[in-house]
Write a structure and sequence with these properties.
4 strands; alpha+beta; single chain; about 70 residues; 1 helix
Length: about 70
């Protein structure tokens, strides 16, 4: 069984984990990565964060497996 794991790659401060969450192996699908936004009223993502969220989910390319 593959577990998923949530990371907060863009923290704002010690008590504010930022507007983007990154999930490794979402829905227990190995080799996948998903970004989700967590916006409050009046908040927005910067260009990099928006691109990551809008392009999500991502999957490992075929090729050499480790």
């Amino acid at each position: 069984m593959t577990q998923n794991c949530l990371h907060t790659p863009f923290p704002v401060s010690d008590g504010d984990f930022g507007r983007v969450g990154m999930t490794v192996n979402p829905d227990e699908k190995p080799g996948t990565l998903a970004f989700d936004s967590n916006l409050g009223p009046g908040q927005s993502l910067n260009a990099l964060q928006a691109a990551l969220v809008h392009g999500s989910p991502y999957a490992r390319c075929r090729g050499k497996q480790h």
